[in-house]
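ok here's the first one, seq then struct tokens
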Amino acid sequence: MTKKTRPTRIDQPIVGWSVFRQAPANEVADVDPLSLRIDRREDGSWESVTTKITLTSASGTKTIYFVIGFGVVCGRQQGRPLCIERPLEFFVPAGQTAAEHQWVSATMRTLSLAARGGFLVKALADLRKVSWDRGPVWYGRSRAGKGMVHDSEVAAIAWAIQQELTKRGFLDERGNERPLAVLAEHYARTRQYRDALPLDNPHVGPEPGADTADAQPAPAPLPIVDRCPDASCRGEMVMKDGCPTCLDCGYSKCG
């Protein structure tokens, strides 16, 4: 005996429908390099940016150095491979391990984890909201030329990092990630420019047999005369225009 089945009754209006299509076995899934999780740093060198900021508050001024490391992350979009340059590491250089800088180091470690997890933008936005009970902190200027006032040192450092990432082309002026296609195109142009530099590509140089008689000799290195007195810098000082000048922070004994 054949069992009869009743048709399914639909009480709600149908707003759309689609036919299920089995994906081809050889189709490669897209991988977003912006959200791809990076478990560990690979061996080799990375591009980096070192920034010095001076924060002003009711307790005085404070100078902080921080470093942003950029790694190349590759993925796939609509079946096409692409690569971008993505900030993955944040840390403070050695010499800033005093008690007042320990929280800076901890914050940078947290940012590094957020960057490798793919949610750096949200982490920076949350740090911008941190406040403390020591009054406002002044650092930087807005696009209108007015001085920026932050609710805490953490918020000021987060804003400074956003500005560096904006200058690097990773964020837009509102602190959001630029579209993936824009980042991929930017990295491709940057990579093409770097490959043309002799420092990055030792094969780039004058053609064999080219006339090098007019080539200017490389300037002799300046002798090191002292170490920078700034405890947070301690860079090498050379004689520049008759004055001992630090090569790292620009400090000059002549004022």
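and now the second one, same deal
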Amino acid sequence: MACCENPGDVIASTTVPDSTLTPAAPTTGDDSVAPAPAYSAEDYEIEIPPPAAADDAPFVDRLARIVNEVYVEAEAGIWRDGYQRTSAAEVAELIRAGELAVAYLVNGNSNSGSISNKSDTNDDKHNDVTRSQPQPRPIGCVCIKKLLAGEEKGEFGMLALDAAYRGGGLGRALVRFAEDLCRGRGLTTMQVELLFPTAFEHAFKARLQRWYARMGYGKVRLGSFADDFPCLAPLLAGPCEYRIFEKRLV
């Protein structure tokens, strides 16, 4: 990750590797959540969109908006005012790199834009014809990457769902998609990171850690956020622990 020369001027375009989202925020002091529909595998699709989707501005903008709205809640009090988790430019870059999986509802989707694909006609192979291919309306996403070369380890982050679809199992499905993708690429371990403020108890983060634990993730160490992301550390509102979690895939 490139370091920002002046973090205070580029808050909207910075990135933090912390992965969230769980279902909707609890309505009580325990792990209960607001009522939400339960989804089966037939109700949604998760896929790596084609690189051309990065040029679909409404599609990219909606994904960036979903992520940023999630992190306002998920990391409340952790960052300085004005911080945003991602930008449309970063989302487009991840799509082009094949590092962003996107969730769509199979039924009831409205098209948020279109992707233009060029193909040859039968009459003139050199005459490009643009065909519009609708891109389904996204409701969530997760970033999936391979860690350092030589390590058989993957990482997921920027996990987010539209508020209307939380609590029905889609967040868990996105994590499983990331795990299956990395397992299929021969990776043996999955990693995820969480930032925990140390000056106060962050109920959402505590609940999120329990959610990851139920999926088999255990804390393996504390990292140094300032060392790994020196351009982002000045944007923190206070001291934080940078907790690293792992799960064996095989």
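notes on #2: The CA atoms of residues 31 and 210 lie 9 Å apart. Strands lie at 44-47, 100-105, 113-120, 128-135, 138-146, 153-161, 189-197, 218-223, 240-248.
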